[in-house]
Specification:
about 90 residues, rod-shaped, 4 helices
Length: about 90
């Protein structure tokens, strides 16, 4: 259950912060931050907003696609089987 929530949050974060959606999300974010120092800074430095958006997008994708116990399905060395002892007769 927690895995499903984590993947859903990661996908939602990746969808909202995708850099290709920046022409839509940047004005929305700047209107929410209007009148604040952060809003004034981001409105004059859109490259910072694009860098933050890209980093959050990549983090959301990593969160959505990461396996819970590390790398599952990775190539593991097989434990050698001990040869069976046959009695020679």
């Amino acid at each position: 259950m927690i895995e499903g929530i984590r993947k859903g949050v990661g996908l939602a974060l990746a969808l909202v912060t995708c850099p290709c959606h920046l022409p839509v999300t940047a004005p929305l974010l700047l209107s929410l931050l209007a009148g604040t120092t952060l809003g004034a800074y981001l409105s004059t430095h859109l490259e910072v907003l694009a860098a933050i958006s890209t980093a959050l997008f990549l983090g959301g994708l990593a969160l959505a696609t990461a396996e819970p116990g590390g790398r599952k399905g990775a190539c593991r060395t097989a434990t050698p089987s001990t040869p069976s002892r046959r009695s020679r007769g």
